[in-house]
Specification:
The chain is of the alpha+beta class and 487 residues long.
């Protein structure tokens, strides 16, 4: 079958990724999350393609199946659970180990199994599996951005699937007979030159699409384990489980010599990774001595790294006093002391009103701080009446989805969460699936506007600091309050 997407001669892995992502977006072939760039695309028809995994002989003969945590593979994870097989899912970005075993409730219904197959279910119904566990996996299901009928696979460029396989080889969980399957849209099956494949690249044995099952007959060997020369100390710091594996292999007498730390924007494990754009500064002509010039440059760099904090503006009715250091100090009264910082001032009476006034002051001040030139915004809808912003923040911290900035619009039953990049927003979207507060299920999705300027739903005019509002509602019902979260 002729590939839908034509790959130009001399194309790199990154060129192929970009072409596939652009095609899927242009043809509207994907479901949430969008856009698909820098992701494993959640293509339309993914559940149909995933259902084909149960038709494979390798599936019927194995008791343990490893399925990646990508959104389009939910159907494959559900098929494994419905077949009463052991389901192993890699820890997202390998931050807290290698695997989690999904353990559904006893006598789980089909709906409960469906929940277990989602990102939230993976977090709530799983137990960690260590490197020393006796695991024997005969079938792996991985996501892909592009794949060829010869079995050559291209991921999203971060190398996690390749590292996971290498670690599984090292722990004896897989061998040359282990079957590797990928699930993609038909348009993702393209011609990939073998010359682009490297020693650490994982190949596949079967390709499942909504219309076909392709057996690749791939003869290229799979990675023999972790290739330490392609890793560096920075990668080990980011993935703690790699440190533990390195120590184990060093004790076993294996060569664990690491590679050189790559230059900025490069990846030693995935050499084709798109370089990060570097800000170029125009050199200035100066007659200052070198030592004085270097001192001023260091001071300028240091000041750029620290966000500028402007004094919090306080409403007149808050009965607070501006201090020289820019903080707000509440006056003592019979109800207790005012508190400094973003928590607001709580007194015996009128505490909630003063807390709201201070939060509005924070909103105005923080909107003037320096943020990244572009952010990815997540819309959170269905917020129940009476919910406090502090309760939402606690839920975000619990699910490890703390945003760079939170815009609270409780009266409209919604909030907007700003994240530094699409990857962070994607992780948050996965973590927020199935979130329920006060008995209400919240809806999380990418906001319509992604330009990083005025966020959807945010008022055009700024609140006036000279007039104190007279709200009859609780602080949770304020509109347009923005809160910066620590990262």
């Amino acid at each position: 079958m002729e590939p839908t997407i034509k790959i130009n001669p001399g194309a790199t892995k990154w060129d192929i990724r970009q072409k596939v992502w652009d095609y899927i977006e242009d043809k509207n072939l994907a479901n949430f999350p969008r856009p698909v760039h820098n992701r494993i695309p959640n293509f339309k028809g993914a559940f149909t393609a995933c259902a084909r995994v149960s038709e494979l002989q390798a599936f019927t003969q194995t008791a343990e199946v490893k399925v990646d945590p990508d959104k389009p593979l939910e159907g494959a994870r559900l098929a494994v659970l419905q077949a009463n097989k052991k389901l192993l899912v890699p820890t997202p970005r390998l931050q807290s180990g290698l695997f989690n075993e999904i353990t559904p409730p006893q006598g789980a219904s089909k709906e409960q199994l469906r929940v277990c197959s989602t990102a939230q279910g993976v977090k709530e119904f799983s137990v960690p599996v260590g490197l020393d566990a006796k695991v024997k996996v005969e079938l792996l299901v991985v996501g892909s951005v592009a794949v060829s009928e010869q079995g050559y696979r291209i991921g999203k460029g971060e190398g996690y699937a390749d590292m996971e396989y290498g670690m599984m080889v090292s722990m004896g969980a897989v061998n040359e007979s282990t079957v590797v399957v990928t699930v993609v849209h038909d348009c993702q099956v393209v011609d990939i030159p073998e010359a682009l494949m490297e020693s650490h690249d994982l190949t596949v044995d079967y390709i499942l699409t909504p219309t076909r099952v392709i057996k690749t007959e791939c003869q290229r060997p799979k990675p023999p384990g972790i290739i330490w020369a392609k890793l560096d100390t920075d990668k080990l710091e980011k993935i703690p489980v790699l440190k533990k594996l390195l120590a184990l292999e060093e004790q076993a007498g294996k060569d664990v010599m690491l590679g050189m730390v790559p230059a900025a924007g490069e990846s030693c494990f995935q050499a084709d990774h798109k370089p990060k754009r570097q800000t170029r500064q125009r050199p200035r002509r100066t007659t200052q001595p070198d030592a004085e010039r270097e001192s001023k440059q260091e001071n300028r760099v240091e000041s750029e790294q620290k966000p500028r904090r402007r004094p919090v503006r306080v409403r007149k009715e808050s009965k607070g006093e501006d201090r020289e250091d820019g903080r707000v100090e509440g006056r003592r009264g019979s109800g207790g002391e005012g508190k400094e910082g973003g928590k607001g001032m709580i007194g015996k009476s009128g505490g909630k009103r003063r807390e709201k006034a201070l939060e509005e002051g924070e909103s105005e001040s923080m909107s003037q701080r320096k943020f990244p030139p572009s952010v990815t915004t997540v819309y959170l809808g269905g917020i129940p009446a009476g919910l406090r912003v502090s309760e939402l923040k606690a839920a975000l911290r619990e699910r490890e989805a703390v945003p760079l900035r939170l815009t609270w619009q409780g009266a409209q039953h919604r909030a907007f969460l700003d994240y530094t990049d699409p990857q962070a927003a994607d992780w948050a979207l996965e973590a927020l699936q199935g979130l329920s507060l006060n008995g209400n299920s919240l809806q999380a999705e990418l906001a319509k506007s992604q330009r990083g300027g005025r966020r959807p739903g945010l008022p055009n005019r700024r609140p006036r600091p000279t007039e104190a509002p007279k709200p009859k509602t609780t602080p949770s019902e304020g509109s347009g309050d923005t809160h910066e979260e620590p990262q």
